[in-house]
Amino acid sequence: MMPGSEEGVIEAIRQAHEVGEPLAVAGRGSKQGLLRPVQAARTLSTAGLAGITLYSPSELIISARAGTTLGEIEAAVAAKGQHLVAEPPDFTALFGQSQAQTIGGVVGANLSGPRRVAWGAMRDHVMGVRAVNGMGEAIRSGGRVLKNVTGLDLCKLLTGSHGTLAVLTEVTLKVAPVPEQRATLVLRGLAPGQAVAALSAALGSPYAVSGAAHLPAALAGFVPGIGPGPATLMRLEEFAPSIAYRSERLRADLAGFGAVEVLDDAASRLAWAAVRDCAPFAGMQGAIWRVSVRPSRGPAVAAALEAAFGASWFLDWGGGLVWVAGPATTEAHDAVAAAARAQGGTHTLFRAPETLRAAVAVIPPEPAALAAIAARVKAAFDPRGILNPGRMHAGT
Amino acid sequence: MLPQPAPKPGILARRDAIVAGLRELLPDDGVIAEKLRLKPYETDGLSAYRQVPLAVVLPRTTEEVAAVMAFCHREGVRVVPRGAGTSLSGGALPMADSVVLGLMRMNRITEIDYADRCATVQAGVTNIGITQAVAGEGFFYAPDPSSQLACMIGGNVNMNSGGAHCLRYGVTANNLLGLKVVTVEGEVLEIGGAHLDAAGYDWLGLMTGSEGQLAIVTEVTVRILRAAEGARAMLAAFRSNEVAGACVDSIIGSGIIPVALEFMDRPAIHACEAFAHAGYPLDAEALLIIEVEGSTAEQDFLLDRLKEICARHDPISLKVSTSAEESLAIWKGRKGAFGAVGRISPDYMCMDGTIPTSQLPHVLRRIGEMSESYGLQVANIFHAGDGNLHPLIMFDANDPASFARAEKFGAEILTLCVEVGGCLTGEHGVGVEKRDLMGVQFTETELDQQRRIKSAFDPGWLLNANKVFPLKGLAAE
Ligand SMILES: Cc1cc2nc3c(=O)[nH]c(=O)nc-3n(C[C@H](O)[C@H](O)[C@H](O)COP(=O)(O)OP(=O)(O)OC[C@H]3O[C@@H](n4cnc5c(N)ncnc54)[C@H](O)[C@@H]3O)c2cc1C
Questions:
Q1: Domains in chain A and their CATH numbers?
Q2: For chain B, how many structural domains are there in total?
Q3: In this structure, are B316 and B366 located in the same domain?
Q4: Exposure check for chain B: N or C terminus, fewer CB within 10 A?
Q5: pLDDT by residue for chain B (477 residues), tens digit each?
Q6: Is the CB of A153 inside 8 Å of chain B's CB atoms?
Q7: Which residue among B87, B101, B103 has the greatest number of ligand 1 atoms within 8 angstroms of its CB, and so is best to mutate?
């Protein structure tokens, strides 16, 4: 089903609700490979809800129907010198398919790029949503202004809920001016612990570093202009005079970690697009996980998983996001989950064959008291459990 | 007086037994039940509304909070959480049959981690207290509500508070990593942590700004940031609200996002100048305070560009600060705005709608007309970058007619904010103040959706039950 209007979405869900028919919820389907497979005979797609409905550059606001492609939105804001702050990644190569992603999917999955570490996640930039809950009721939250605390914040709750609570029909995002220039400082040859210490020093400087990643020797070659050898990357995005000034200050501050190389604007764009899109793993077989931990714990997670199953890994978000690749087995998955837990963080099984995704907890189970609340919140939106059943946790 | 939910049957009659039960859970000084000592808790920053509670409890630990919640849940007693009580929407207003749970004794900082740029603090630590604890290393906690000397992080979380610098640094929600909360049943839950973006539903986002409706926050993990090298402000005065509004558009359109961009209208300029002698031009209709950050050379670069932009809008005057002292003077008037208005009027009400910034001239014109028809003065302060408007309505609380007119005037302004595409509240919350206006912004279906979420956390509606939602279902007294 691919309704062309919100009324169509309402009608489709009402009918499914009446008979208790489960529905897979999707945009263009670019994220079907994420999380757990959904058991549903029919798919409700929002791809038919297309188009930008409002763009006010001077108010830093854009609204679009959920099925609008990310590419169309990015092109529209780029034409006015603006961008989406959370830098949403493009995982088409990673998932080995060619569907463009819709903005509903990007918001539904709360996907953010390297800038997340400094400027917030997708969820921090969702200012308003329109959605249809599992009973076929239209609901709105937030609006088209940048500051709004009226009522419970369903924008954040629905962002990252993977279509399990309601189907997004329109979203309103905060945008920002594209900084005049970019530059990337590169430190070479650091061991992971040293690398994260350097990233922490950069992120803890007054220079507003907006990207902080580390690639071990084996993967640095997959990032244009970076390899060979381990490379630690720090990005600046500023007016030109500030790029010059801050690069020099950081170079001096980081002298203890070694000599700093500086990549120019064009090279920076290429390098960070590769980090953002997880290019180092795009050609890799097997499973891919994301582990989120306190940044200083990133190296410990990497070391544990190297020891457990020879994992490939690299670090983003100053060390707090560990991208992990390895065999698509329950043993490897359990090792990832255990390593994340041991370091006080969480895991997501990000890409894997369906059999593995159906067999394991793709994200950590919630403690009993929270799981009980979660079940009641789910029922508050979707009492018959018809929207994307089992997408996040088995049986719900 | 505002309608309150009818007291729950039997609670008032069982008062002594409930107090005795609470005394078993907390040290002697942790429970207040004497009439005179309850008085300070009868109101908050919206002092027009008052109600003495059944009792007040002042726990020191998460375990004590959990014990109190489990007890109140068992006994069916309503609970009103309270931080510093600076809410401007009556968010901490008690009910006659409620226990006020004050978090102010939970004022310890439990962890500061500069390498990972986070700090964990108890709910009763003041907003400024966090910045003070990390300032020695050059760090700060970004959201800076004007009440930051008094207000507490637990209150900030529950109101999703903003501040003058949220254009650059975001509001509370954008600066949180984790929470420790106690559910209505007395269960302790950890939400998020020191890491970013926990998998699963965004409970952190849902709880932020939930106005004490979902759970009691006992501990908060915040992001701390390294402060910029320096900051400097400039002042631009214009001939009309339209021109100042157009100048704001030009600034944002130029690609510069200042760290602060504040607007004052003529009455606000006059009130603040009389109070603070900040050197504001009294012939201006509108004033912008614009602040930038960075090294001195970076500030110069940005201020030069901003000056050029302002110059294109026929300003009456432009004044760029050349020192920290001059910047302080520029801010002094704006920061003293509440005090300034308090000096020219016995009472004032601070409204808090948000509007699309392009609607500013229209909205100010309409507010001016309303001011005439209600016979009440108003001064407007505006976070111009993000559209958050603070009209200060002046009235006399000793004159019930004046108070009633001020309430109506406020409601009319907020309705206008919604009509032009904005919302009822940008940062002060719904509380009791805007409870009955929720229908202006939301459909009944949408309110029911929100109510069901509240019920998922708090099935018996024991938590802050007289706030946020119109009193449907909770039979009004
Ligand atoms: C002079 C003045 C200036 C102000 N300036 C600003 C400003 O610039 N920006 C802004 O956003 N606000 C501002 N405010 C409003 C107010 O300070 C904020 O809303 C603040 O966050 C309230 O904090 P508090 O500790 O006083 O909370 P309280 O007023 O005690 O409580 C606020 C709400 O949160 C709930 N609550 C408090 N603590 C907890 C907890 N631990 N767990 C669960 N629920 C809890 C209460 O029930 C209530 O609903 C201002 C207020 C004043 C008086």
A1: 6-177 (3.30.465.10), 181-276 (3.30.70.2190), 284-359 (3.30.70.2030)
A2: 4
A3: no
A4: N
A5: 577 888 988 999 999 999 999 999 999 899 999 999 999 999 999 998 999 999 999 999 999 999 999 999 999 999 999 999 999 999 999 999 999 999 999 999 999 999 999 999 999 999 999 999 999 999 999 999 999 999 999 999 999 999 989 999 999 999 999 999 999 999 999 999 999 998 899 999 999 999 999 999 999 999 999 999 999 999 999 999 999 999 999 999 899 999 999 999 999 999 999 999 999 999 999 999 999 999 999 999 999 999 999 999 999 999 999 988 899 999 999 988 888 998 899 999 999 999 999 999 999 999 999 999 999 999 999 999 999 999 999 999 899 999 999 999 999 999 999 999 999 999 999 999 999 999 999 999 999 999 999 999 999 999 999 999 998 755 443
A6: yes
A7: B87
CB of residue B182 inside a 6 A radius of ligand 1: no
Q: Does an H or E element contain B77, and which?
A: none
On whether ipTM exceeds 0.90, the answer is yes
Residue in B201, B252, B354 to test binding to A, most A beta-carbons within 10 Å: B201
Answer yes or no: do B113 and B101 share one domain: no
Question: Do B222 and B243 sit in the same domain of this protein?
Answer: no
Domain stop point among B202, B226, B250: B226
Do B60 and B169 reside in the same domain of the chain? Answer: no
B394: domain CATH number? 3.30.70.2740
| B152/B198 same-domain check | yes
**How near does any CA of chain B get to the CA of A8, in Å?**
18
**Chain A CA closest to residue B227:** A206
Q: Quick check: B138 contacting A, CB < 8 Å?
A: yes
Indicate if ligand 1 lies below 6 Å from the C-beta of B333.
no
Q: Examine the domain organization and report whether B67 and B122 are in the same domain.
A: no
CB spacing of B208 vs A153 below 8 angstroms: yes
Q: Is A152 on the interface with B (CB under 8 A)?
A: yes
| One domain, residues B114 and B222 | yes
Give a yes or no: residue B3 inside a domain. no
Would B6 be classed as within a structural domain?
no
From chain A, pick out residues whose CB is under 8 angstroms from the CB of B113.
294, 296
Do B388 and B297 belong together in one domain?
A: no
